[in-house]
Please model this.
Amino acid sequence: MSTLRIKRPTSSGKRLPLFLLLVLLAPAAWAQAPKLTLTGRVLDAETNEPVPFATVFVPGTRMGTTSDVDGHFKLAVETTADSLAATAMGFQKQVKAIRRAAGGQFTFVLKQAGVQLGEVTVRPGENPAWAVMRQMVAHKNQNSPERLTAYEYDSYSKIEADLSHLSEKLRKQKVVRQIRAVADSLGVGKDEEGAVQVPVFLSESVSHLVTRTSPRLRREEIQRTRVAGVGVQDGSVVQQFIGSSFQEFNLYDNFLSALGKQIPSPLADGWKLLYNYELLDSGLVGHDFCYQLAVTPKTKRDAAFTGTIWLTKAQYALRQARLEIGKDADINFVDRVTLSQELAPTTAGPWLPIKTRILISFVPVGDKLSGMLAKFYVSNSGVSVNQPRPVAYFDSPVAVASDAAPLHRTAQEEAYWRTARPDSLTVQERMVTVMIDSVQKLPLVRTYIDLAEIVVNGYKTFGPVDFGPLPYLYAHNSVEGHRMRVGFRTNPGFSRNWMLRGYVAYGTHDGRFKYDLAADYIINRRTWTVVGIERREDLDQVALLDNNVDDNPLFEASTRWGELADRRPFLHRQNVLYAQTDLFRHFTQKVTFRNRGFDPLYRFGYLTGDQTDTGQPEVAQGFTASELQVESTYAPDATFLQTGNRRVGIGLRRWPVFRARYTVGFDHFLNSSFHYHKFNLNISQQIPMGILGYGSYVVDAGYIPSTVPYPVLKTHLGNESVFYNRLSFNLMNYFEFVSDTYATLYYQHHFEGLGLSRIPGIRALKWRLVATTNLLWGGARPGNRDIIPGFDPSGNAIPAFRRLDSHIPYAEVSYGIENIFRILRVDFVHRLTYLDGPDVRRFGVKASVQFRL
Model:
């Protein structure tokens, strides 16, 4: 800020009284001087998005203001002012001449610059910003939304996605040239380098958001949506994503969950350990006198914020914030993330966000792809607090009104959106819908959309039926030879209630056709009440029986290849009936009846307890099992979205997920061979640990008190492939151990950038450390071993199974590096126990492909 300095005249004293008179009269003259009102907007040159809370001022004077969260500003200046400037942290200053003929309208387009704090003069005493921050922490409880018992408000949200940073190689492709031609013809805006940003998605949503803080529950009622997007065909899941609930950030939390990371807040309790602060200025923001503080992370490589926060002097509450995570942070494929938020006090005291802007810039991966800009905007109004709704009200976290998405754009619909928007669309945004409609009609674009759907989902859509998935089309193994398979599933174009799926496979070596046919019917979508039936006949492996391998496609695909003898293959005939429903919020009940036939393709037998005509113990070489399974799942903070005729869970789960399963096998029912009981409990959780990364664990325990052949017992999942599988024992051989009583622990810790990001040379690679520990306690009673005879009736040896010593767990640990080339993970695995045996591997290297930010 400039300081007015008055130079004393050096002429005779006779002129002094006149000078004093001018000084005394000057304030009155200045107060009466005419004012010129200047208005306008501050935009980002790269993204054409608003720059919230930019400083707009007349150079050399004290006249200035800040833009709001939408980039708008209004400033009254002296008529003698000849220029106006705008600047913001992370941007270059821009100065423009004031031209009266322009009517006082300005548009500043700021170019990005590195965030550099001004020179700090160190004086005796502490940093003045620290005193403000200590007061902020002392007042957190009274200012945070968590102090409210409940709050709800109306919310308008808007999301846009644009292709950006098109490479030179990509720009030369025919499809891209066509898209750019459409963009140019419509006058779509360009970035600071003159490149066209191609909009591919735009959505608007009006909803009512309700939150209860104890217990923590949330419900969003989406009242109206409109969606335009290249490749967007079914709007049901999109409608649930475009509401405001997943964009609600509370900066009073110590850590914010974003992009799969735990990002420390500048308002965290441990603020001094995480960030540097500088008191920049103080002044009015609206009607609130605020302290303006600059924030930078202690360590440049950490996923942390850089920017500015404004804290009120009266309550030390957060009034507004503009924060950014730059390209130096260890986040894959992300150039920067910008979060701008404006807050207002509620009638009960705590402050709530009224406007939020988020921008995520994704960088191109390779020279054949483009980058992307994802832009989010949320505006809240009509706040009501401390009127908690009943817990049962939150049974459906997301509710979409039946008329939320009209099929046709009418004049009435356009009038609704003009009224619902808190701010009118810009020219750029108005052209986005036209642009998207034009682009997705291009023949080449339709081809790219179809190919993308095949790669992502594995299925190719033909009307109401999808064919695939691709990874299962071909395999080769010792039993089937060349295995060919073709599968299908119906989509909502076939029915909104019925789901049909299946496949047919054929092996050239065994000459067998295999198949699976299933039908599901959705009775109630709100409680997700579904019934289903399935008939299956295919080749399976005892080594993989009742183990979930779906989470690792590479590992699952590898099990269909190679020599299968050690995995004990068998022909599996299965009939299934099931029903499931949500009995109440977060509690799902599923009941399954299964009749399965076991026809071994290797030497197998078990003692039935009867005798043959010769008086020898009877040995059966196959069996049938009829069983009823009851499964209960409790996921306290799960959020489910419905996509087409399927339901998927999303979001981080702060609380453990519990699954209990009981299975009873019936003797002499539908040709079943024996009676048995099985009990299983599974607990899983992901644990955020801030700067230490995050850990995740799975505990799985079971008990089978019955005497049955080993295919009915628990075969622990080994892994002889080169691919790492989290829920397997990666140095255990296929079919190495079988148990009737067991408990397993899988623990994995991702250190994120901790450790390697501090090492020069390696830091630039953005590698991340990961460590795992897998433990297994188990055992099998003698009766379950004795039921397997040494030889079959023909005198051929029958292989048995190996059991664990109940006092010594199987243990393996691994350490590794992930994020190699952004997608590759390599683990170095050590087996610590049960090292005897010729085929035991004490050490191994496993690789896997994963996509994480």
Remarks:
- Residues 1-32, 231-246 have pLDDT under 50 and may be disordered.
- Residues 16-32 form the longest helix (17 residues).
